[in-house]
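Reading is simple: each integer encodes one residue's backbone shape. An example follows:

___
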Amino acid sequence: MKRRWAEIFFLVAISWAVNMAAAELQPPTFELRTINSITVPFQNDLPLPGFEKQDQTQLSLAGTWKKERLVMNQELTLQKRTAETIAALEQESKGRHLAAFDDSAWENKVIPGVENPAPDRYESGVWYRRNFEISKENEGKHLRLVFLAANYFTDVWVN
């Protein structure tokens, strides 16, 4: 069976509150909506699925990822995602999300796991990178990536 390679790469911003007087902040992504007298949680305008087993193909991305910590512009991280802030985030990444980027010097990190267990007080950004395969029977289908406990803000680049 032929397989197609995909690469997932994301930045988790580990940050505390930052003074953002001049910038428009990220809007909330979670809300509760009432539909036919039933309260339904929504995240990013999509119904939030429950944690019970669902009848759909799942691909676990648990395992070893490449990881690099970096000092990042936390004010930029907290800004609303517009074309300009996305371009600035990509510039800040300095090519880390490009397939040709050499991550051989990055640490290996087993996911799921804790990025900064006590007494570690690290409070900036972390890049995670992982290659994975999409089976031929799933090509062209709607696929959802779910990140649990990805902290405050997560920007994801695929391919």
Summary: DSSP finds two helices and eight strands in the chain.
